[in-house]
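Sat 14:20. Reprocessing the chain from the morning session after the first attempt stalled halfway. Input below, unchanged.
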Amino acid sequence: MKGFFRRDSPIFRGRDAAIIPSPLWGEGQGEGDCRMKNIVITGFMGTGKSTVGKMLAEDYGLDFVDTDELIEKKAGGKRISEIFEESGEAYFRKIENDIIRDVSLRENTVISTGGGAIADKENLALLKRKSIIICLTARPEVILERIRKEEGIRPLLKVEDPLKRIKELLDSRREAYMRSDIIIDTSDLTPGEAAKKIKIILKEKGIAKD
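Finished this time. Tokens:
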């Protein structure tokens, strides 16, 4: 069964911030309820976006898409690192915007985005039209440790001091990330624990039902 959001539910910005209205709700099947449209999982690299997103999609019975995977497909199968190296970040961001424009029209989907996606105001506006935005964060040192365990090197971290670069990127994106509806620090959480915490928050705040 698809997950459901309550029509009268507030969405919370940050961890325990003020209640804000949301245009998320669509027409539902039950009195006072409406069908869940989209959940966007965003945040910095190495915070567990894809893994957590897939878990939520399975638990809620929703579709799952990863914008980075769609970008690679649109670029003829090139890896993200190859796109950066061969065509530059501006070209990558253009494809990313095209992909987000497409996926923002979907419903009943968990969407995992790249770490810099919502730093673009147009991308954020497109996603917010039909989605609740959940940002995953982590301490810089934890992010670096996780990324070092991955295969390959992230394009934006091909520098002499990657930890310094992570801190700089986090600082530059802080304002954009704070525009998310919910923020979860995954520094000390497994992907399963992060997904469970998100579900608990959505339920406790009256945003979603099991």
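Residues 8 and 14 are 19 Å apart (CA to CA).
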